[in-house]
Amino acid sequence: MNAESLRHVRLLVGGIVTAVVMTLTGPFAAGTAHAGLLPYTPWSSYLPGWTDEYIPSSDNDCVSGKNSCLHGTLKELRRISDTTASTCSHDSIFALAYLRMTETYGRSRDIAGFYQDVPFANHQDAVFARYYTDAYYAYQNGDLSNVPQAWRYAFDAAKQKKVTSNGDLMLGMNAHINRDLPFVIAAVGTVAPDGSSRKLDFDRVEEWLDAATAPLMAEIAARFDPSMDDTADPLGLGYWTLFQLISGWRENAWRNAEALIMAPDAAARANVAAQIETSANTTAQGLLLSQAYTWPLNTTTSRDSFCSTHKNAAAPMAYPYA
């Protein structure tokens, strides 16, 4: 990656490394959820027979991992991204990131030999997306009992405009990687029918996550918040350090999934699940502190004003495999 691309992907990560290792902070009180939307029907329910378990013989396109499943996933993600962008909601940062990364997954899937098991990858992609979309719409409709606490931190921060754009992005990634991903991996399985590990395909994902980050940060900067492009990191930490953090989160998610699977009984599994929830919540609390706007020194005014006139701007960089 050249110097110009690195400039596009530098993030304000001061405080994040400290934040993610905090272990003694108690939970914050969550705010009130959005309301007033029509009741949400999970998009997966449109296809009878949905299950998080991978069943190649299923008539459900997503459960069996057919390529057509991705169309439904992307339709739902575009719906959220377009809606949040149109109002300059701070939820738009993570929503755009998720849409673009899923589109990139689709292109990587079409590269011969990129994955060992494409149908399984399709299924896992859909299950993972549903954890986000269900949490998002449950929050929007005030159904907080069905919103994991890590997501409540992220959605509350966006609604109340508490944190920087980088904070909005990282809170969403924390909820989806540190909280959701272990449960997704455990549900879909870590071992193929022939006994081989699915870890190789899991790790291949990081190749396009890395390659798509520069275009993503450039697009966020062009449409929503230019500070995502030109902020200087006071600690001298840049994109490489941030990506290593995300990579570490994904590796930890895999290990937590293994712990869920290997738990000898329901009580042991519940204990592992509680540890996953607590860890994600603690990381979110740290991010809320390290990425908070500090009025009157900095506010969301310039960010929101910029978004109002640039929210429909074209992405300035090409995404990988396009």
**Tell me about the biggest sheet?**
none
Oligomer: single chain
Q: Please trace the helix and strand order, writing H or E for each element.
A: HHHHHHHHHHHH
Question: What structural class do the secondary elements suggest?
Answer: mainly alpha
Contiguous low-pLDDT stretches (5 residues minimum) are 1-37, 231-237
User: What's the average pLDDT?
Assistant: 86
Morphology call: globular
Rg estimate, integer Å: 19 Å
Record field, number of beta strands: 0
Query: Beta fraction of the residues?
Result: under 5%
What is the terminal separation in angstroms? 17 Å
How many helical stretches? 12
What is the share of helical residues? Answer: 55-70%
What does this structure look like?
This protein is mainly α and 322 residues long. The chain is 60% helix and 0% strand. It contains 12 helices and no strands. The chain has helices at 3-9, 16-20, 69-86, 92-109, 118-140, 149-159, 165-188, 199-223, 227-230, 239-262, 266-290, 301-310. The longest helix is centred in the middle third of the chain and has 25 residues, at 199-223. Residues 1-37 and 231-237 have low confidence and may be disordered.
What's the arrangement of secondary structure elements?
Blueprint: H1 3-9, H2 16-20, H3 69-86, H4 92-109, H5 118-140, H6 149-159, H7 165-188, H8 199-223, H9 227-230, H10 239-262, H11 266-290, H12 301-310
